[in-house]
Specification:
Structural class: alpha+beta
Mean pLDDT: 79
Low-confidence stretches: none
Number of domains: 1
Radius of gyration: 14 Å
Distance between the termini: 28 Å
Shape: globular
Largest sheet: 5 strands, antiparallel
Helix content: 25-40%
Number of helices: 3
Length: 113
């Protein structure tokens, strides 16, 4: 998936520049399929599902994770998509740094309704 294709997820399958994809396929891919209610993260179909606390409000997101710290984040409730590219191959920070950047800078800068 290219970064710009995140618009398909936000649009639940519809985006003029890329055509369309079945809405049920998008909804199903970002729904939790593995995990339990007491866990912090869940897993959909190729998406990690989680939540962040921003200004006292819970924000639910989906993220595709790649090697080295590559992350594609989608926050449907905020109509927000973000791509984090990194080159921390083989380093422990590749696991946590993208989420820190997303929480600290992207979510805090976004419009909260």
């Amino acid at each position: 998936m290219r970064s710009r294709d995140l618009a398909l997820v936000l649009g639940r399958g519809e985006w003029a520049a890329a055509g369309s994809y079945p809405r049920t396929g998008i909804d199903e891919s970002i729904a939790a399929h593995i995990g339990a209610p007491d866990r912090l993260y869940f897993y959909g179909y190729q998406w990690w599902l989680g939540r962040s606390l921003v200004r006292g409000r819970e924000v639910v997101w989906a993220a595709a994770a790649g090697y080295g710290g590559q992350r594609l984040f989608v926050v449907p409730a905020l109509e927000l998509a973000a791509a984090v590219t990194a080159g921390h191959y083989g380093e422990p920070m590749q696991l946590w740094l993208p989420l820190v950047l997303f929480n600290r800078y992207v979510l805090r800068a976004g419009k909260q309704s």
